[in-house]
Amino acid sequence: MNRWAVFTDLDGTLLDGTTFDLEPARPALDRLRAANIPVVPVTSKTFAEVEPLARELGLRHALIVESGGGIARRDGDAWSLEALGPSSDVLRDAIDELQRRTGARIARYSAMPAGEAERYSGLSGESLARSQRRDCSEPFIIEAGTAEDVIGAAAAMGFRVRRGGRFLHLGGTGGKGEAVARVREELGRDLTMVALGDAPMDAEFLVLADIPVVIPRRGGTPDPELVLRVPHARVAPAPGPAGWAAAVDAVWRELGNPPWPI
User: Fold this and answer.
1) Are 199 and 186 spatial neighbours (Cβ–Cβ below 8 Å)?
2) Residue 253 CB contacts under 8 Å (≥ 6 apart), including other chains
3) How far is CA 37 from the centre of its chain?
4) For the CA atoms of the chain, what is the radius of gyration?
């Protein structure tokens, strides 16, 4: 019997990129939970966003949040969040300095008025409020200037900018890859790591996986930058949670576990 774990991006991967629905993946998630196979979210979402989802799905293992800026672990009946990189206060000051150095005009997601943040994120209400309460990362939009200048200046300051599906994300140098490596070590070196993602920043942890899977974008084609960075990855047959479920089903059959009840 193979020991394996699933490390997965959320928006555009386990969750539909527009509606945030996961229903096509729910049967696969239920089967993974019944088989005690860890499912570890690896997301740019905040802990405040992911915790209700973890509660709904019965996720019991670590939650990697804010693009690898933090790891939440269960502490009894509650969760404890470990920050791996700079705090949100440090990152806010860093964005001010990036604007000064580059002349770019940068809009921080956490500071956007609700209407503007909703337009960029597709979220509303309490979900939107949870997404803007950042602890250890700062999504942003460049309103004037170039991404290349901002990325270069951030690197010179000891930070890193990553490209997500909707935003650029400012954080520390570790990111999703470092956080995933830590959680994988905690789960056990002998497990087979399955990783699924759809955006360029997901390459950081897909390259660590034994079985990396690229989830296509809504139009049905995978992100070209992600494919370039993880050329050995398999591509799921459909976007979003339907493709996620199909890819996980294929892995289950491949690793020789007993067949799931259909």
Assistant:
1) no
2) 259
3) 19
4) 18
User: What whole-number distance in Å separates Cα of residue 119 and Cα of residue 41?
Assistant: 24
Name the token pair of 164: 């997500």
136 closest CA partner among 113, 156, 160: 160
Length of the chain: 262
Q: What is the pTM of this model?
A: 0.89
Q: Report the b/e string of 100-113 with b at 16+ CB within 10 A.
A: eebebebbbbbebe
Six-digit token pair at 137? Answer: 């990362």
Question: In sequence order, what E strands does 43-100 have?
Answer: 63-65, 70-75, 78-83
Question: In which residue are the tokens 């005009």 written?
Answer: 105
Instruction: Classify 204 in phi/psi space as left (phi over 0), alpha (psi -120 to 50) or beta.
Output: alpha
State both tokens at 32. 């993974």
Rounded CA-CA distance 176/197 in Å is 11
Three-state secondary structure of 151-213: HHHHHHCCCEEEECCCCEEEECCCHHHHHHHHHHHHHCCCCEEEEEECCHHHHHHHCCCCEEE
Beta bridge partners of 192: 4
Segment 51-62, tens digit of pLDDT: 999 999 999 899
From start to end of 23-62, where are the E strands?
A: 39-41
Answer whether residue 2 shows pLDDT above 90: no
CB atoms within 10 A of CB 256: 8
Q: Are 8 and 193 in contact (CB under 8 A)?
A: no
Integer Cα distance of 156 and 129 in angstroms:
32
